[in-house]
Design goal:
The complex is a heterodimer. By secondary structure, chain A is of the alpha/beta class. Chain A has a single domain, classed as Rossmann fold, CATH 3.40.50. Helix content of chain A is 41%, strand content 22%. Chain B is globular. Chain B has helices at residues 12-20, 39-48, 55-64, 69-79, 99-118, and strands at 2-6, 27-29, 51-53, 84-88, 121-126, 129-132. The N and C termini of chain B lie close together (12 Å). A 6-stranded mixed β-sheet of chain B has the order 2-3-4-1-5-6, with helices on both faces. The chains are: A alpha/beta, B alpha/beta. The interface between A and B is medium-sized, with 23 and 26 residues.
Chain lengths: 175, 134
């Protein structure tokens, strides 16, 4: 089963995704698959905050900023993937540059989805600030939106988190 | 507490007024307390009003004054557990380049998560239409 969890910055989506996974995992082994690059103090602060949230909840943590399909075999049955927006950015602007990243990211997640019994994937709503951006940023926004659409189609359920409150967009009944 | 959120200019205030029957003079505005009213005057108004519009502007000001928005919300809630808060949803964009703007966005989000958890009802307004999500 795959559930896609989306929401804006500081919307409580991580907390919600984690609680959802804990509720549905039913005692299965849990992996936290982190895609954030460790690139400075602010990233470390975020990582620390998320680590504190997960502390004592039985997660094994794996880090894979790109090519998450390569670690699918190392994951336990229930996987919390955080997050699609970082993964997409890393695939687009990393050592290897993939301009059309949407298909690539979706294919990587597909491998993980087939392997995991339960996959909760966290993504991000970055589409509504109405600002004009340079071409690179616009490409990113477009690719992330495409990833979200592809994953939502394959997901059994999709939920948008608004300040900690779940607003179900698909499959409300199954969770 | 009741919370109205949603993007800018979506009709939060009008929706709130029609649902709760609140008149204009019963609404304090995050914009108006930007002027140089004394703190005491502001506090006494906060006690009298039914709703607080543009609360995100208060959060920005609290940060500029070195106050903790979460603590300020706690204070407001202790004094006015029945208050109706209206606050723009500001987190659905690209991460801002400026640290100050990133911190602001983070603070609005975390403060509103706390407000939504306390609230008896949360409405999200889009195109003037309010959806009760809690």
């Amino acid at each position: 089963m795959m559930i896609l969890v989306s929401g804006g910055a500081a919307s409580g989506k991580s907390e919600y995704a984690e609680a959802l996974l804990l509720r549905l995992a039913n005692g299965a082994g849990k992996t936290y698959l982190a895609t954030m690059k460790r690139d400075g103090e602010e990233a470390e602060r975020r990582i620390l905050r998320h680590r504190q949230l997960r502390e004592g909840k039985g997660f094994e943590t794996l880090e894979a900023p790109v090519n998450i399909d390569a670690v699918a075999g190392a994951c336990r049955e229930a996987v919390l993937l955080e997050c699609i927006s970082n993964l997409t950015a890393n695939e687009m602007f990393g050592e290897e540059v993939h301009t059309a990243a949407a298909e690539r990211v979706a294919a990587e997640v597909d491998v993980l989805q087939k392997k995991a019994k339960l996959l909760v994937a966290v993504t991000n709503e970055v589409f509504s600030d109405g600002l004009s951006y340079d071409e690179m940023t616009v490409n990113y926004i477009r690719e992330l939106a495409a990833v979200n659409r592809l994953l939502a189609k394959r997901a059994d359920a999709v939920v948008e988190v608004v300040y900690g409150i779940p607003v179900w967009r698909k499959g409300a009944g199954i969770c | 507490m009741v919370l109205f959120t949603g993007g800018a200019f979506q009709g939060k205030r009008t929706a709130m007024q029609s649902i709760f029957g609140i008149a204009d003079h019963e609404i304090m505005d995050g914009k108006e307390s930007a002027d140089d009213k004394s703190a005491a005057e502001r506090d006494s108004r906060a006690k009298a009003v039914a709703a607080f519009d543009h609360y995100h502007l208060c959060i920005r000001r609290q940060m500029e004054q070195g106050l903790d928005p979460l603590e300020e919300l706690e204070k407001l809630y202790r004094e006015r557990p029945d208050i109706i808060l209206l606050c723009d949803e500001v987190g659905q964009g690209i991460v801002p380049l400026e640290q100050k703007e990133r911190d602001y966005r983070e603070a609005v989000g975390r403060t509103m998560c706390a407000a939504a958890a306390k609230a008896d009802a949360v409405y999200r307004v889009i195109c003037g239409i309010a959806e009760r999500i809690k």
